Amino acid sequence: MKKIISLCLPAMVAIVGLTACGNPSDRHNTAGADSTVASNSDTADVAKDWKIGVQLWTFHYFPFVKAIEKADSAHVKYLEAIPGQPLGDGMKDSFDINMSEASRAKIKQLLQSKDMHIVAMGVISPGSVAEWKRWFDLAKDFGLSYITCEPLKQHWDAIDSLAGIYGINIAIHDHPRPDPYWHPDSVLAAVQGHKHIGACADLGHWARNGLDPVECLKKLEGHIYGVHLKDIDSAGNTNANDKVVGTGVISFAPIFQELKRQHFKGMFSIEREGNWYNNVPDVVATIKFYNDQLAKL
Predict the structure, then answer these.
(1) What does pTM read for this prediction?
(2) Which domains are delineated in the chain?
(3) Helix (H) or strand (E) run with residue 201 in it
(4) How many alpha carbons fall within 13 Å on the CB side of residue 263?
(5) Which sign, positive or negative, has the C-alpha torsion 99, 104, 110, 114?
(6) Contact by Cβ (8 Å): 227, 188
(7) DSSP-assigned states of every residue in 69-99
(8) Which residues contact 192 (CB under 8 A, 6 or more apart)?
(9) 53 φ/ψ sector (left φ>0, alpha ψ -120 to 50, else beta)
(10) By the number of CB atoms within 10 A of the CB, which of 33, 40, 213, 221 ranks highest?
(11) Of the candidates 218, 214, 246, 217, the residue with the CA atom closest to the CA atom of residue 232
(12) How many other C-beta atoms are found inside a 10 Å radius of the C-beta of residue 136?
């Protein structure tokens, strides 16, 4: 998805050269693929600790209220909101820091009526610490667990402090090169000395960058707060097309095995970046694929 910079306006990012952490052509040989099959009780524990949700960028061609209806029709209960999405249903504002109290109350009521929960929101890149505080205020108001973002380096100290105060973690997201966080080493640099800063692992973008998602997950062990679940049609191509999860080039079995090994506890946000006007069946298919993979752990 596009990241949101200073009230959801996209911007160019600096070119950063970093060493690749693996080649996706070797993905079938990654550690975890030959692990012993877990017992039923182990699988139940994984199911308890993991959430399957949807990144609302999947439905960003529609207003927030319509996007919620689409997610609900796919039986999704957990959401990652996208800042800047118009609310719709007669509300004049968007899901962002300027949302009125009346709109916030209406959205909360809608979510409660469907037993749905916003776990995270992003991707944002606020331009000032003052703006960051307003995003934290919004996140607290909706009970979020983490904020998906690509923060400016000069804000690392401040947002780590804010995250501790608010009890809401920071999950740094990776976009394709030349994004400054395209490689896990750059995320680890932000993590050092900042106990509330971690990662949102976008599996599709790592593969687009020519990286092995399993090796990237290993580098970020203990610091992964969320995962963007997607697939692509060609590795090492920053312009690769999105595919329904399980139908592209990414091998997911070792990914799930590695996250299980790490005792990951968080959300998989399905992010379908194609078939924009009719992608609910794609989300349903991804949930089935996810459940099938879970049963094999």
Answers:
(1) 0.88
(2) 22-296 (3.20.20.150)
(3) strand 197-202
(4) 1
(5) positive
(6) no
(7) HHHHHTT--EEEE-TT-EEETTEEEESSTT-
(8) none
(9) beta
(10) 213
(11) 246
(12) 22
Indicate the angle between helix axes 64-73 and 101-113, nearest 10 degrees. Answer: 10
H/E stretch holding 199? strand 197-202
Q: What one-character-per-residue DSSP string does 237-297 give?
A: -TTPPEE-TTSSS---HHHHHHHHHTT--SEEEE---SSTTS-HHHHHHHHHHHHHHHHH-
Give the orientation angle of helix 253-261 with respect to helix 280-296, to 10 degrees. 60
In angstroms, rounded to a whole number, what is the distance separating the alpha carbons of residues 68 and 70? 5
Give the H/E segment covering residue 146: strand 146-149
CA-to-CA separations, 147 to 4, 170, 173, 286, in angstroms, rounded: 12, 5, 10, 23
Q: For the chain, 297 residues long, give each residue's pLDDT as a single digit of tens.
A: 766 544 443 333 333 333 345 444 333 333 333 333 444 566 667 768 899 999 999 999 999 999 999 999 999 999 999 999 999 999 999 999 999 999 999 999 999 999 999 999 999 999 999 999 999 999 999 999 999 999 999 999 999 999 999 999 999 999 999 999 999 999 999 999 999 999 999 999 999 999 999 999 999 999 999 999 999 999 999 999 999 999 999 999 999 999 999 999 999 999 999 999 999 999 999 999 999 999 999
- If one counts every other C-beta atom within 10 angstroms of the C-beta of residue 129, the result is 15
Dihedral in degrees, nearest 10, Cα atoms 184, 269, 260, 115: 150
Residue appearing with tokens 């990237």 = 216
User: Do the beta carbons of residue 146 and residue 172 sit within 8 Å?
Assistant: no
